[in-house]
Amino acid sequence: MTESTLERGMARVRAAWGPLSTPLVAEGRDILEGLARAPTSEPWLAALVSEAPASRELHRDPDHGFVLLGHAEQAGLYRPPHDHGAAWVIYAVQHGEVEMRTYGRVEAPDGVRLVRRDVVRLRAGDVAAYLPGDIHDTRCLSETALLFRFTARDLRQEDREGRLTRYPAPAA
User: What highest taxon heads this organism's lineage (predicted)?
Assistant: First the structure.
């Protein structure tokens, strides 16, 4: 039986796994780009496109703890600024368009505020990586979008253990 793009990609990540490094992020970006460009005739992707779940776990590595999720999003869905705790994350867009803005955290006398650094629009095949401590938000710009989110660790656990930080939406 022929291995799917998903199976080949996760095998590549397992083979390359180690401490966070430029080569590991580059390999992860390449793998996610391949997943975003996989043929929709592959059963795993055909099901994801057809069912359009808000979130579906596609792979969880039992040895290294990395997780790959698929997210179907609708126009206007906004996820306010957040970081990913001690995890690093790679996003890829399979179809649709998503805007991601990045922020710097500034300590001010009246509390913490965010300063926007950049705005990028990700379209089909585009990939973006965020390292531990990076802050970003996301907004679905198209009618629908399908994203892949690869995380170096389980973000639910990062959240439960208080390492993930969410920030209020910035003023317009």
Answer: Bacteria
- The span from the first CA to the last CA of the chain, in angstroms, equals 52
Does residue 171 belong to any structural domain of this protein?
no
Give the pLDDT band (50/70/90) at residue 169: confident
Residue 171: how many other CB atoms lie within 10 Å: 5
Question: In this structure, is residue 143 part of a structural domain?
Answer: yes
Q: What secondary structure, in 3-state letters, does the chain show?
A: CCCCHHHHHHHHHHHHCCCCCHHHHHHHHHHHHHHHCCCCCCHHHHHHHHHCCCCEEEEECCCCCCEEEEEEEECCCEEEEECCCCCCEEEEEEECEEEEEEEEEEEECCEEEEEEEEEEEEECCCEEEECCCCEEEEEECCCEEEEEEEECCCHHHHHHCCCCCECCCCCC
Average pLDDT of 104-126? Answer: 93
pLDDT (tens digit per residue) in 25-48? 999 999 999 999 999 999 999 999
Instruction: Look up the domain containing 134 and give its range.
Output: 5-160
Q: What pLDDT shows up at residue 58?
A: 97
Q: Are the C-beta atoms of residues 144 and 76 closer than 8 Å to each other?
A: no
In a domain, 168, yes or no: no
Residue 1 has pLDDT above 80, yes or no: no
